[in-house]
Amino acid sequence: MKISRFKKSHKTLVYFASNFEYREPYQVLIDATFCQAALQHQIGIEEQIRKYFQCPAKLLTTQCVILEAESLGAPLTGATSIVKKFHVHKCGHEGKPVPAAECIKSMTKDNRYIVASQDRLLQESLRKVPGRCLLYLHKATPVLEAPSKASRKWVQKRAKNLMLGKQVEKIDFMKEQQGLKNTEVTKKVNPKKSKGPKNPNPLSCKKSKKDRTQQTKPQIHKVDQTGITKAKRKRKKIPAHVKAALSKV
Ligand SMILES: [Zn+2]
């Protein structure tokens, strides 16, 4: 096998492993169409897949796949005998078999299976779901399909969300830090600010003129005969020109 082919398959496997939790030994879910193509091109599935992946892989199928292949009879006899050799995974349709494609779709919902199939409709359907990994035969050569558009979109979206999440976390962290710093600064610079403005020390201040006059000349109170204290009426100073005018009258 050419190195570039291995690099390509390795890149795809790493992509699915890192983004969709595919793990070694990779589980390859094989259907009768894949077996039929392998038979036509006279290749050994197990040998080819192991060579192609260059890492451990577990080849398996389901009861539904076997039953469908058996029901198709003569044209698929060879493929049926091949598919029967693989380990049969429980699919949940025991006693109530469903078409192979339906069974495979349901199997890939909760588990990480690399689907080995030549069924175009099944492939199309799986490409629409993020995280589905496809293997097919191009003539006698196994090809691990590059991640579908849906898979790439999903990964990009998740990466974007992660970035956003990290940015929000960073901003929150910075805000928190800034907040802590601000309170620390205000505490150091003006710890009693919240108590309001401080009055000057009365002993250190010179008294205003007004205060002094009030002290030296206390308000004179006139006591009349009734004993009621009346405050002295403050005389209004009449300007000279007004006085002159009044005296003329
Ligand atoms: Zn099934």
From TrEMBL:
<dbReference type="InterPro" id="IPR057776">
    <property type="entry name" value="UTP23_sensor"/>
</dbReference>
<dbReference type="InterPro" id="IPR029060">
    <property type="entry name" value="PIN-like_dom_sf"/>
</dbReference>
<dbReference type="InterPro" id="IPR006984">
    <property type="entry name" value="Fcf1/UTP23"/>
</dbReference>
<dbReference type="GO" id="GO:0032040">
    <property type="term" value="C:small-subunit processome"/>
</dbReference>
<keyword id="KW-0698">rRNA processing</keyword>
<dbReference type="GO" id="GO:0006364">
    <property type="term" value="P:rRNA processing"/>
</dbReference>
<protein>
    <recommendedName>
        <fullName>rRNA-processing protein UTP23 homolog</fullName>
    </recommendedName>
</protein>
<keyword id="KW-0539">Nucleus</keyword>
<dbReference type="Pfam" id="PF24779">
    <property type="entry name" value="UTP23_sensor"/>
</dbReference>
<dbReference type="Pfam" id="PF04900">
    <property type="entry name" value="Fcf1"/>
</dbReference>
<comment type="function">
    <text>Involved in rRNA-processing and ribosome biogenesis.</text>
</comment>
<feature type="region of interest" description="Disordered">
    <location>
        <begin position="182"/>
        <end position="249"/>
    </location>
</feature>
<feature type="domain" description="UTP23 sensor motif region">
    <location>
        <begin position="191"/>
        <end position="210"/>
    </location>
</feature>
<comment type="similarity">
    <text>Belongs to the UTP23/FCF1 family. UTP23 subfamily.</text>
</comment>
<feature type="compositionally biased region" description="Basic residues">
    <location>
        <begin position="230"/>
        <end position="240"/>
    </location>
</feature>
<keyword id="KW-0690">Ribosome biogenesis</keyword>
